[in-house]
């Protein structure tokens, strides 16, 4: 496989993890526009551990994910008071705060960025993507997921039937933050150089857009959305300077024809049934 296509596949895998981090939080009716901040935490912590302390990548990645999870839980508590656009703006502010912190944090390179990481194999990235996709798929079959969806549909009713809505919503934030941190760690060791600009508002929007396009009701929708966002601009290179305009038009067309996203549960059920029948 050429370096070019390997890079595209790596980008799809990393974006898939970012989309899954949003998907998990969204399952509890919370929209986060700050997951790039959790990605930055995972990226910088794992890079520091592997470069400065010479830790193995897997151990550094786990510590980075655990740290981001704790931060996500801390952020999740005050977020409980907010809903809708107010929560989205608050998480956006958190992401920008993290980016600004690393912009002036000189021990990690500040505005000049941080380098020295070892390049990670493509197979390693996709091993993590597969593992987290399996985890999310198993979560979707669990009672906990039903509780999360109950909160998503009607938090008041969920609380009245005895669900601990606070614990579930904060836990969703923590788990989503951990997945975003894994994406950040893999990003850092894929590109072997990071700087605060890698984790701006646009990165968080990419995560959300991948979920919306791929399907916000199934975990594998994040994979479909990520593939679409990465590959469509490449497939549209033949239209030269009109490429971005054509890309935007196609995205709008997808949203108009499939408002629930490319994948949803009925479609997956049909595809699974047909595969089993054949």
Note down, in words, how this protein is organized.
The protein has 278 residues and is mainly alpha-helical. The protein has one domain (3-200). 74% of the residues lie in helices and 1% in strands. The protein contains 12 helices and 2 strands; from the N terminus they run ααααβααααβαααα. It has helices at residues 3-26, 35-51, 57-79, 84-104, 122-140, 143-153, 155-160, 165-191, 201-214, 220-235, 243-257, 265-277, and strands at 114-115, 193-194. A two-stranded antiparallel sheet has the order 1-2. Helix 5 runs antiparallel to helix 8. The protein is globular and about 50 Å long. It starts with a helix and ends with a helix. The mean pLDDT is 89.
Question: What share of the residues lie within helices?
Answer: over 70%
Distance between the termini: 31 Å
Radius of gyration: 19 Å
**What global shape is seen?**
globular
Q: What is the N-to-C order of secondary-structure elements (H for helix, E for strand)?
A: HHHHEHHHHEHHHH
* Number of β-strand runs: 2
User: Which regions are unreliable across 5 or more consecutive residues at pLDDT < 50?
Assistant: none
Percent range for β-strand residues:
under 5%
| Biggest sheet layout | 2 strands, antiparallel
Give me the secondary-structure category. Answer: mainly alpha
Separate helix tally: 12
Count of discrete domains:
1
Strand arrangement in the largest pleated sheet: 1-2
Mean pLDDT: 89
